[in-house]
Specification:
Rossmann fold; 5-stranded parallel beta sheet; Glycinamide Ribonucleotide Synthetase, Chain A, domain 4; binds adenosine monophosphate; single chain; binds glycine; alpha+beta
Length: about 450
């Protein structure tokens, strides 16, 4: 397994029409980056959001991600060359399998590969089999078993619902009592059936980085590493969120570290998937914690991170769409070498009041920001009403993304830009990128 260094596009079929599935900021950022590829005539996002049609050359379609048959009809009737699936839930439900069964070309793993994210138990057991550095863990099928493990280990263990819980299924406790509460809540149905089994995990410490590998099933390439900001409040305080901002490339790891992570984490993961006959064509997103004993995997996801994707996309050259296409076709070597900007990229999320517990919806959004080649808005939780007014429609409403030759310049642009946006209760962290900023 090697990184691609091929410069030719030999045998890559022509890529004209792309469908992106999802409705978040990540999907708008993907559509925007895919549209930069010369030769692409149409990029459609379904179901998209209130900002999708503001992206130059992108359309919006109104088919929900759950309507697999309608999606198939649309793709076949409209000769869609490539489908890129953004979120984890449709992947875990097997949308990529269903589309492939109809001869369509999909970037995104099948349901078997999506288990990397959709079952923490499965993913931990794969890590163990493959010798991938990760926190020690214990599986529990019921409350009694979980409490017995806790009694034996006598440490505040992290509690993880086994299944998908919209990013809310993990509790990182400060005491054994908090672990007990989280165990009880999970088995009492806080996360629905996702919490009927749990993984208890040793609590690790250290900064976190997000690593993205694009895989064609056998080979992969790494994108620049990014850093997310999971907590709601400045100083990395408050509840965990989907992510309040990101930047890339992170300076926390050098190229040498990245090569090591590639050998220690990504290669063995792909080998372990291959050993299970899983043809994984999509993103392997490894969330790592840089501990005093070296990098350890906190979680795997089967898709791009949100908001890391919004920070990454402006760094991608116009070959990005062809690279996704080649991965989806099972042969990364058909793609041209991806050019990656040397700029620093910054992304700050503006959230609705009440996020993450109970975000307020339906507020009017005013955007005065003038986009340019170094600054733009990727909308997420937004919708247009019948008069064309842009309203808040979700927790993370939008993100402002900007680049610069250093992080100070990139964040200065972004924070000046976000001041040009207003909606009642707008909430954003003022310290995104504090790790890499001097001002
Ligand atoms: P996840 O939903 O698996 O991404 O977990 C959410 C967040 O919980 C991670 O980004 C970490 O900040 C934290 N977390 C997860 N597992 C651990 C662990 N074993 N030790 C410490 N923090 C963790
Ligand atoms: N930003 C974290 C995630 O996408 O899971």
């Amino acid at each position: 397994m090697q990184q691609n260094t091929n410069h030719t596009t030999k045998n890559l079929p022509s890529l004209r029409k792309v469908l992106v599935i999802g409705n978040g900021g990540r999907e708008n950022a993907l559509a925007w980056a895919i549209r930069k590829c010369p030769g692409i005539e149409e990029v459609t996002v379904t179901p998209g959001n209130g900002g999708t049609e503001d992206l130059k050359g992108c359309n919006r379609l109104n088919i929900p991600t759950t309507k697999h048959l309608d999606l198939i009809d649309y793709c076949l009737n409209n000769k869609i060359d490539l489908i890129v699936v953004g979120p984890e839930a449709p992947l875990a439900e097997g949308i990529a399998d269903t589309l492939r069964e109809h001869g369509l070309v999909v970037f995104g793993p099948g349901a078997n590969g999506a288990k990397l994210e959709a079952s923490k138990k499965w993913s931990k057991s794969l890590m163990k089999e493959a010798g991938i550095p990760t926190a020690n863990h214990w599986n529990a099928q019921n409350k009694k078993e979980a409490l017995e493990i806790l009694e034996r280990i006598k440490l505040p263990l992290v509690v993880k619902a086994d299944g998908l819980a919209a990013g809310k299924g993990v509790t990182v406790p400060n005491s054994i009592d908090e672990t007990v509460i989280a165990i009880k809540e999970s088995f009492e149905g806080k996360f629905g059936s996702a919490g009927n089994q749990i993984v208890l995990e040793e609590k690790l410490e250290g900064p976190e980085v997000s690593i993205f590998a694009l895989s064609d099933g056998n080979n992969f390439i790494l994108l620049p590493p990014a850093q997310d900001h999971k907590r709601l409040k400045e100083g990395d305080l408050g509840p965990n969120t989907g992510g309040m901002g990101a930047y890339s490339p992170t300076l926390l790891i050098s190229q040498k570290d990245l090569d090591e992570i590639s050998d220690l984490v990504i290669k063995p993961t792909l080998e372990a998937l291959n050993n299970k006959n899983i043809d994984y064509r999509g993103v392997i997103y490894a969330g790592l914690m840089l501990t005093s004993q070296g990098p350890k995997v906190i979680e795997f996801n089967c898709r791009f991170g949100d908001p890391e994707c919004q920070a990454l996309m402006p760094l991608m050259g116009p070959e990005f769409a062809q690279l996704l296409f080649a991965c989806a076709l099972g042969s990364i070597s058909m793609a041209p070498t991806l050019s990656v900007s040397k700029n620093c990229s910054a992304c700050v999320v503006a959230a609705a009041s009440g996020y993450p517990e109970d975000p307020r919806k339906g507020d009017l959004i005013k955007i005065f920001l003038e986009e340019n080649s170094s600054l733009r808005v990727f909308q997420a939780g937004t919708e247009l009403d019948s008069q064309g007014n842009l309203l808040t429609n979700g927790g993370r409403v939008l993100s402002v993304v900007g680049e610069g030759e250093n992080f100070d310049k990139a964040f200065k642009r972004v924070y000046a830009g976000i001041k040009q946006i207003d909606f009642p209760g707008i909430n954003y962290r003022k310290d995104i990128g504090h790790q890499v900023r001097k001002s």
